[in-house]
Amino acid sequence: MATRKPHPLSAVSFTQVSLHDAFWAPRQRVNRKITLPIEYQQCRKTGRIDAFKLEWKPGLPNEPHIFWDSDVGKWIEAAAYSLMTHPDKKLEARIDGVAALMARAQQPDGYLNAHFTVVEPEKRWANLSEWHELYCAGHLMEGAVAYYEATGKRAMLDVMCRYADLICKVFGRGPGQKRGYCGHEEVELALVKLYRATGAKRYLSQAKYFIDERGQAPNYFKLEAEALQKKGWKKLGWVGSDYSYCQAHRPVREQGQVVGHAVRAMYLYCGMADVATETGDATLRPALKRLWNHLTHRRLYVTGGIGSTRHNEGFTFDYDLPNETAYCETCASVGLVFWAHRMLQLTGDGEVADILERTLYNGALSGVSLDGKRFFYANPLAVYPAACTGAQAHVAAERQEWFGCACCPPNIARLIASVGQYFYSQSEKAAWIHLYAQGDAALRVAGQTVRLRTDTRYPWDGEIRMRLAMPNPARFTLALRIPAWCPEASLAVNHTPWRVQSARGYTKISRRWESGDVVNLRLSMPVLQVEAHPKVRGNCGRVALQRGPLVYCVEQVDNGRELRDLTLPAAARFRPAFVKSLLGGVTVLRGRAFRRHPREWRGGRLYRMAPTRRQAVPITAVPYCVWGNRAPGQEMLVWMNKEPDQGARSDIRACKANERKGRE
Q1: In the chain, which residues fall in CATH 2.60.40.1180?
Q2: Is cis: bond before 6, omega within 30 of 0?
Q3: Measured at the alpha carbon of residue 377, what is the angle toward residues 24 and 416, in degrees to the nearest 5?
Q4: Minimal CA–CA distance to 34: which of 329, 397, 374?
Q5: pLDDT tens digits for 284-303?
Q6: Distances in Å between the alpha carbon of 232 and those of 76, 228, 235, 307, 521?
Q7: C-alpha distances out from residue 247 to 212, 261, 263, 325, Å
Q8: Which of 52, 343, 505, 519 could form an SS bridge with 101, CB 3.0 to 4.6 Å?
Q9: How far apart are CA 92 and CA 77, in angstroms?
Q10: Do residues 271 and 210 touch, judged by C-beta distance below 8 A?
């Protein structure tokens, strides 16, 4: 393994974390036993795996697509992560079989891409802006590294090293090299992983080249388009003329707004963070901070979803966060988790951990059903089934078994398989706990292995008990995250109260620790009514419900049709209740709302001139991450109407009184 440069924090590998809770452990079990086999069968059924046999000929059906290789690479990565914690000979044999196909498909010069080997060999590297060669290469590299780390087998890793060597030869600033980079970022972060696995610095240098060259003048994609036009080759037309769609509109260090295709943006920022970490390049950090602030302050959904429109699968303008037409691709949320994790190691900032948690528990996890068999591509915040046609066809009222563009299923699978890596970080003198779940972890702190056993019902409950075990007493810091959603926290060490002093989202306990020491942390979990910025025009006068890290929604199956007509009273109160028999065991929120009386709308009238009588109705909200797991084709709503509170009513009465005085 390569020697990594020191940086503020180092993530604890998921292989050192074992989750035994009622939230993540069942999802990991389903992912391992159900989702991974389903995805393998889908890759076989759709021809993605057999494409590496290179048997397709013109005129035959099922032409290998330009991005098929990436789906297989992500499945291999997810499967390899599963093998690291749960060895499985059958699963390992499946990966061996796919790796063998890739080895035979690799060309003499190291090139490996099913589509451009058998369908359009003359177009290799011809349209980097729109075609996916380097993107596919990146996902295959990630899969190869993960499989090598899981098994020690080098077959696939060696294949990808030969491919990476070719890429290093083809792309760069030297004589005869292409000064290009991929329209769909991914290879940048993958090359850093390959560097870490092999110690070959040329891979890190190549990743840095791709980061540094992006958006430089003259713009490579512009020159490429002119060359394609001269040859008479058609472009797909999705990149556009200013190249912001693929974040190539200007050099990365000059970028300050999150723009374009959301998944591409997240992978680029991951690559930037990795290069900054491994090279010590401080010039990338200001751009990363600007981009992070812009996303989280102006273009982030309350669920952690990103990407407000299907038209570019990404961003539009500040505060444009529609609900029914939200795109919020599962891959984009997964990518945001990846980026947040990297930013957390660079900054140690609790606000970053807050976003990581929000996205992980809501916008990403909603992408897969509880039984692990069906998936969402888009994750809207409101669904009205009758509207899920035409321009809103991307909004599905129920999850699908697979997709023609199947990037999301293996992406969520690799996230769940490796979710333990997001809980802890370590440094020479500190152990950091970012997320909480029942389980065990082994951290390297103060020159020894510190084992941490956590007992909690989180995210359903905020009571957390941690017991430390270590060979020798040692002085170090235990940094515990106090989430932004928690208004009150209490702490005790060995049953002695300890003052909670939260700085940048963490309270730190610095002392001499001994084996058997116990830390008790209590995080209050009130039901919060979240408001959006006034410029988020679709949510004015509405609130979203949140308890702990979980955002809630209302579904038709619990609350009837026309959810948009529900209005919460000014003094709305909700009672949390854990229901073991519902959706695998969840805490629901129960309260009351108003609904306009349906009898006053009989006779087919479209409008009324007088106020409608209202009736009080019970409502039940469930976590957003588990919506759509019961009756198919149902309405769903996150943001609910809310009556003005008493203070606002008083202000309105005073304003009216002043108006009357003025008229008099």
Answers
A1: 424-523
A2: no
A3: 20
A4: 374
A5: 999 999 999 999 999 999 99
A6: 37, 6, 10, 33, 66
A7: 13, 8, 11, 23
A8: 52
A9: 12
A10: yes
Q: What are the backbone angles phi and psi of residue 178, rounded to the nearest 5°?
A: -85, 130
Q: Assess whether the previous peptide bond of 218 is cis (omega < 30° from 0).
A: yes
Q: Report residue 75 as tokens.
A: 């499945």
Q: Does domain 424-523 have CATH number 1.25.40.10?
A: no
DSSP-assigned letter for residue 171: B
Place of tokens 């359903």: 460
- Residues forming beta bridges with residue 474, ordered by sequence position: 513
Residue 458 has phi, psi (to 5 degrees) of -50, 140
What are the tokens at 411?
A: 């992406």
**Tens digits of residue pLDDT in 460-507:** 999 999 999 999 999 999 999 999 999 999 999 999 999 999 889 999
H-only helix segments in 299-329 = none
pLDDT value for 652: 52
Helices then strands, each counted (H, E), the chain: 17, 23
Q: Is the dihedral of CA 631, 633, 639, 641 positive or negative?
A: negative
Please report, as a single letter, which amino acid is at residue 16: Q
**Cα(192)–Cα(142) distance, rounded to whole angstroms?**
10
Q: How far apart (Å, rounded) are the C-alpha atoms in residues 544 and 118?
A: 51
What's the pLDDT score for residue 598? 87
Give the tokens for residue 162.
């030969």
For residue 154, CA distances in Å to 18, 97, 111, 162, 192 come to 27, 14, 18, 12, 18
- Dist CA 145 CA 608 (whole Å): 65
Q: H or E stretch including 48?
A: none
DSSP assigned state of 178: B
Question: Cβ atoms within 10 A of the Cβ of 339, count?
Answer: 28
**3-class DSSP state for residue 95?**
helix
What amino acid occupies position 230? K
3-state secondary structure (DSSP) of residue 538: helix
> Which tokens hold the place of 470?
């270590």
126-179 pLDDT, tens digit per residue, is 999 999 999 999 999 999 999 999 999 999 999 999 999 999 999 999 999 999
Q: Nearest-CA neighbor of 278 among 204, 340, 202, 349? A: 204
Instruction: List, as one string, the DSSP characters of 543-603.
Output: EEEEETTEEEEEEHHHH-S-GGG-EE-TT---EEEEETTSTTSEEEEEEEEEEE-GGGGGG
Rounded Cα distance, 440 and 198, in Å: 29
One-character DSSP codes across 441-453: EEEEETTEEEEEE
CA distance 664 to 660: 6
Q: Catalytic residue positions?
A: 313, 407
Shortest CA distance to 360 belongs to which of 313, 441, 305, 402?
Answer: 305
Angle between helices 155-170 and 89-105 in degrees, nearest 10: 40
The structure tokens 């190869």 sit at: 144
562 pLDDT exceeds 50?
yes
Residue 377, token pair as written in the block: 């591509």
Instruction: Please tell me the distance from the alpha carbon of residue 589 to that of residue 591, in angstroms, as a whole number.
Output: 7
